[in-house]
Fold:
Amino acid sequence: MQIWIDLNIDTHDFIPKEYWWANAEYVRNAIPQAYVLVYISPVGELCGFIGVSDGYISGIFIKKECRGMGIGKKLINKCKEVFDILTLDVYLQNKNAIAFYEKNGFAITGRKKDETLSATEYVMTWESERRDRRLLVMAFEGRDNSAHVLLDKLALKSGGEKLALKNSFLFCTNQLVQKLEDHTYERIVAFGQKPIIKNKIYIETVAQMDKDIVKTDYDYDGLAKYLNKNGYRTVVSKNAGNYLVTIFYTGLNIFKQRLDTKMIFVWRAFAQKH
Structure:
């Protein structure tokens, strides 16, 4: 708590010291409820910490002798790995703090009045690019391909993105790899057309290359129940087939290292008329 008190007094010379002492107990009780990261020096000294509640940064507090070492930036970056949106309030007079947050990707998105202190505050916000890319939906190209027709007709909400795959083993795999190098997704759904099935949807759960079998972490049982409930006959399959296996196998192997991304492949029946 001493770090919190010392830093606030040092950086808010326009606010009476008594204000921070009066609020110290409230902050002490709130800390266990927040997401808190601490920075420990190589010699074991506590240099500072950051507190976040539901994406709201209560503050970054660095000991005076530890400032200028990039600790605040490191704590912010760690929080960016956890939250898609970060917000905070900063007093208008605190020019150094405003400049620091702007340098770290925050923008002023609002203005409000602290009635207790009769002081003006800026609301500052940072948003991750991941937030705009929750879902990637893919399908192989082809005017008469039922999967691609579905892709064209899909109206994705904000956060969804489409990818038309080339009908080439190598090219379509490279397309997916490139996408995953540039962006992060929570879910990836790939659609394919399977001529031999009629009035059914096949959900593939594994991909196999030689003797190596990779299983999806996607909630395929939940997807199957949802589709069945909405009138679609659904089959959960473990036989992706040769054409699909390359891209599905590649994707699932990549996601072994990205546990926050789930991928599934869904076959649609062949349709001559659309």
Notes: DSSP finds eight helices and 14 strands in the chain. The mean pLDDT is 78. The first strand starts at residue 35 and ends at 40.
